[in-house]
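>> received
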Amino acid sequence: MFSRLAEDYIAENEICSGCFEDVETNSNVQCQRTESFFSQELHISDKQEENLWQSIVDEYEEKQSQYTEWKKEQESSAIVLPYQDVASNYLNRKIFPLLLPAMENMLVEARRWDALRIQKCRFNGIDYLAETLWNLNPKYPKRAIKWHTVFEIPQFKLLLRLHPRPIFPLSWLLTKDEAALYIQRYVRGWLVRKRDYVQEMRQFWKALAEEKAGTKAFMDKDLGSKEKLQKEEQIDMCEFYKLLGKYKKTI
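>> returned
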């Protein structure tokens, strides 16, 4: 009777024969169905795992490429007003596409002149960079047709007239040890200035200076210049003495 009830219960609940043996013998025998199920999960082949991972990677790369293309389209189609543009975006779009190739050409030219080994070398990297940027300015394409040296640029001529250069540049007069001290001093200063707390302090003093300048401009605008203030003070003193004289007469 008990076995029939157990068989009916097993048939209704779809319990395997291993579970039926547990009920009758009351022994701790594990279910064969669960063992076979877990064994199938654990025996997944390595090829299937690799294929699954590769499909995930391919799907991610495809979506990432679609996102990057969409982002480029949005950036190209977006209209950015000059006062809304970020400084980094302006540098990436306007300055670096011109400056970086010019700096690469400058390094190639310095290597050709062997400027890093010869101390008294005629090559000047700053002059070469200024000459390249001036002649390859995209706003003035005619300059590239007739190349001008740095000493033929009108702005440079005016600068030399106002601030003439010494006969020998400083790099010719310094020894290697003195030049190393200059470079090390600059590098140490840069390493200190890039620290977070130093940047915070510099921003504080900068904001304080701007606040003082703004307050001074506001005072000059509303109250007038110092001469006007002095005249007003003199007028006030005259009125004070007049009132004082009237007061003495009444006494």
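>> The radius of gyration is 42 Å.
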